[in-house]
Each structure stands twice: as structure tokens, then as C-alpha cells.
Amino acid sequence: MVDGGEGPGAVAARLTGRPVSGVRTGPGGLAEVTLAGGPTVVVKAGDGPGAVAAEVAGLRWLAAARAVPVPEVLGHDERWLVTELVRTGRPDAGAATRFGRALAALHAAGAPAFGAAPPGGPRDARIGLAPMRNEPGTDWPQWYAEHRVLPYLREAADRGVLRTGEATVIERVCERLPELAGAPEPPARLHGDLWSGNVLWGADGRVRLIDPAAHGGHRETDLAMLHLFGCPYLDRILASYQETAPLSDGWARRVGLHQLFPLLVHAVLFGRSYAEQALATSRNFTDM
């Protein structure tokens, strides 16, 4: 984890203005750096151009909602990000209930448009290791098809992950989105990459969110990603969410629609098995 000869300890010292007493490297390009006489912080390198700027803007936008806490940004530059370390504990039902309410409040904080980037964030952002363009729109079905599903569908086809003729199955779902999408909703403030690995169960009983791909979107998209990759106490999270901000009728039938975006992103990044999941999900809607 070296950039021009500068390691995470030197990065933490430079960006926080404090000396360092210890460094422990971990998986995924992360390092925990102990500041002299102070706390331990997390140092990470960006995954590509604009990645740090997008993450910083996303964390600050989520924090501004005062709903689900996120790690504080302690320093950053174009390449590196330093945040507070979250001490994690075990998931429990009480924390899940509180998280469901807080997630509803985060979504209710809203966004200027579907696809709106966080204030100060770049239009060309990222979701995990993949590029993600934040292009504003006013009509969710049209925006979701044009700026979330179809770009990754084309990329998967170009890479040969989708076979000849298979893309048309997903394209038909995009054509039907206006009738499948349910009642219109205002743009929500999304985390945008809400799989269980980005949900930290704090030792203090509070959930934090990390690694956002934050943008304005449909609130059911965040919930669908929690379903897709699993999350402890998901039933509790959803129940308290529903008590706080009831979802529109038929939301459970629409989970697959919102999963097409992350499934196609994963197909581009990780291959055929995710493309097959996207196809199977799409057929549930084209066969209706």
C-alpha cells in the first residue's frame, strides 16, 4: 500500500498533522494507524480517479442527514482518505431496530433529483470498483433504466458475460419499468452500495455506514441491496423502517427490479454467475 514511497503511517501524519505511533495493515487495502497520544484511525487509498472525492462527499452528505452515523472524515487528498475507526461489536435486535428507523430518516432527508451527486461530489463517481455516473433525472423508471441498468448491461454484453440474445430479456424489463415501478416517490438520499459489508455494527450498539456510493435514488434500491447480499436481523430492520416510513404497496414484489443494478455491476466485475442471477430476476418480470 505505497503511493510514491508514502505509506499509510506517513499519510496519516501528513493529513491529520499528528505524529504516528503504530501501523497495522489489513485486508482490502486498509490500514489502522495509531496516532501518538490519540485514537486509531483508518487509512485507505482510492480505487481510481475521483474515488476519494466521491467518498468524502458521500460521507459528509449522509452525515448531514443526522440519521445513520458514518465515520468522521479526518483528512484526505486526491489519493488517500483518513477516517475515524469504528470499534465493532456483535449484531443484535435492538441495534437492528434502531438502524431501521435511522435508515428511514436518512432516505427522508431527500435529494434534489434522481442521480443527484452529493454536494461537491463528482458526477463521475464509483460503486465499489466500478464507475458510476451521477446524471440527474426527474422520472425514476426512465432514469433507472438509462443511467443504472443499461450502462452495465452493455458493458456485460461487450465483455461476453452475457451471451447473444440474453440482453434483450433485461431490456424488456427496462421497457416495462413505468408499469412495474409502483407509485411515484420523491428522490431519497441513498447510501447506494448498501450490502452487509458496508453496515458496521458498532460496539456501542449503533450501526454505522461506510463506503457509500451516495446519490439521489429510490429508497427501495437500498433495501433491495440489503436483501440481495443478506444482513443480520433484516426482518427487524425492515419492520422498524416500515413503522417509521411505510413502503408503497407491492414493494416486496419490486425487490428484484431494484436488484438488477447491483447484479449487473457485479456481473461486470465478477462474471457470469451474477449475469445469470440478473437474467433469472428479469424473467420473473417478463413472464408476468
Question: What's this model, at a glance?
Answer:
The chain is α+β, with helices and mostly antiparallel strands and 288 residues long.
Structure report:
The protein is globular and about 60 Å long. It contains nine helices and eleven strands. A hairpin with a 2-residue loop joins strand 6 (124-127) and strand 7 (130-133). The longest helix has 19 residues, at 140-158. Helix 4 (140-158) packs antiparallel against helix 5 and helix 4 (140-158) packs parallel to helix 8. It has 288 residues and is an alpha+beta fold. It has helices spanning 8-16, 51-64, 93-108, 140-158, 167-180, 219-229, 234-244, 255-270, 272-286; strands at residues 20-25, 30-35, 40-45, 73-76, 80-84, 124-127, 130-133, 188-190, 199-201, 207-209, 215-217. The termini are far apart. The strands form four sheets. A five-stranded antiparallel beta sheet has the order 1-2-3-5-4, with helices on both faces. The chain has a two-stranded antiparallel ribbon with strand order 6-7. A two-stranded antiparallel sheet has the order 8-11.
